[in-house]
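Q: Here's a chain of 259 amino acids. Please give me its 3D structure as tokens.
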Amino acid sequence: MKNHWNDFQTDAYSGLIAETVSFRGHDGKQINGYWSRPLGAGPYPGIVLIPHMPGWDEWCRETCYRFTNHGYSVLCPDIYQDFGAGTPPEVSARMRDAGLVHDDSVMGDAAGCLDFLRSQPQSSGKVGVIGMCSGGRHAFLAACTVPGFDCAVDCWGGGVMAPADQLTPARPKAPINFIGQLKIPLLGIFGNDDRSPTKEDVNVLEEHLKAGGKDFEFHRYEGAGHGIWYYDRPMYRQEAAMESWNVTLDFFERHLKTI
């Protein structure tokens, strides 16, 4: 595996643009998204970045253009838009008070992102999906239930195998129930000290994927818990973060940049 960090030519042109755009999401509604893409003719593969539980926040936006620096057109939807406007903490608090965003709503937004990215003149036609925390769960669910994605990355997504007593109107089925519909390569990034998903949860998920003959790879890190990429929080783990970022960029390059 090559090192993707600092793997650019210093005399090469580099430029990107990032802005808020509107696209058709769940139930045909107009949804806002943060769209970051390289400047240039392309073609560029796409990535749908599903926000994590803290919401459509600054970290998600910075992550969009981090991927763009590596040659991707990235769209991050405001999956909590139905809960009104405000700062990310205010909106996500209202979402939690309302019983969480519904899976059908997020899947509709993910499908809308996919259509938006593929419709752009600079698109290569290939699009992956990634999410962290609850977004990792949503990315797994999208990989199984939203046709058209080319690959998926689940970063420490909890609740993929939620038991019956944890199901809610917003989350009526555990994503593991849809594993038979998984037809695309899946990457998983996990910390072995995480409490959701636990190490044991990831073990069971891995066994289900093996039993189903799925194309997947899991990377698991000792001394790391939840949110190992979150450099704005104490849970950040520098060594594990940089290694798993490289793994993720390599995965996307293999499945989105190759013909």
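Q: Can you summarize the key feature?
A: Helices lie at 58-68, 88-97, 103-119, 134-145, 199-211, 238-257.
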